[in-house]
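Figure S7 source data.
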Amino acid sequence: MPMQFVKYHVRDKYLKTDRLPHIWCPGCGIGSILNAFLLGLEKANIDPDKLLVVSGIGCTGRVAGYLNMDTFHTTHGRAIPFAIGLKIARPDMHVVVFSGDGDLVTIGGNHFIHAARRNNDLLVILVNNLNYGMTGGQVGATTPHNAITTTTPYGNIEDDFNIPFLAAAAGAVYVARWTSLHVRRLAWSIAEAFHRKGFRLIEVISQCPTTFGRRNKMPNGLDMLKWFRDNTIVKHNADLRETRIELNRKIVIGKFIDIKDKPTFEEQAYGLVEKVRGVKRGE
Amino acid sequence: MINNQKQKTQTIQVKRRGIVYLVKDRCKGCGFCIEFCPMGVLKPSKDFNAQGYHYPILVEEPPNKVCIACGFCTVICPEFAIYAEPMEEEKK
Ligand code: SF4
Ligand code: SF4
Ligand code: SF4
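Tokens for the predicted iron/sulfur cluster complex:
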């Protein structure tokens, strides 16, 4: 059977197809992660009309512009506070934050920690491309030690944030990490996390061949995916002290935390209102 | 997981066949589908698409070297260009 040339893709129903091809570079991982997110959404059987997706600024921030559903493109680092507002106003909706490492744990790092601490009912998809891609490849708080970036031409002297450890320590109820190669497991993880409540974090390590890979001996997307294939190890419930990303060591991926039935901020807020006023919300 | 599957396919009895679809002009030639197809049935084209990239083409050698509709290309493609679906008259 020869290949069939067609005009539409199976995921087109979720996308603003008039905006395709998207802006991401050839070989970038964000498109694959968005694709896996849509597969996860389908597997979880979530009605897109019951979903709000919030992005911040950066390459991953562009996700909001391509989804054909209610999406919000917010200011830099403020995707989480915006999403908290949405969820408290519309507790009936699923709220997803889909943004990058620079936006969520660097510029917006404090929001991230406190939302995890309060157990705000959000599903956070954090695409970690290990640098500031959109602005030209500067070092960030997620750049591994010794990596070369435009602002660390002799190697990064800082340690990076260990994001799963940070999230878990702050109180996140679901913590997983995959890469842009592990798209199937990522989709399953997203589907599973949709059916949990509270602050859920899925970190997806992604390739930015254009600004990061090029300077670190992996000039195209395929080189970086082979790096993910050969240098990752799946360890569910891993000791999170060992999940820092180092260039010369295997990157630990898997599902690390899955706590059910911890009350969310929203449940407790509405519960308190009910108790004090003696009426249900909306009455 | 992905390693060495090309060799294994020689002995696998193909239970299901797929049809591969391509929105040709969306492809940016990243090669992910070609590299990670477990059956090794995708190859880069000689032609360019409208964006100037080499898109994947399907090179099957029935009965065993065929698309099995595993769906990996469908989900790894960053451009929403390629997808596969099982053939209707499967189960042989
Ligand atoms: S700069 Fe990097 S992260 Fe941004 S679109 Fe290009 S490859 Fe992707
Ligand atoms: S569905 Fe699987 S076997 Fe078929 S072309 Fe795609 S990756 Fe290859
Ligand atoms: S994965 Fe998609 S964009 Fe990449 S070569 Fe295959 S069809 Fe083209």
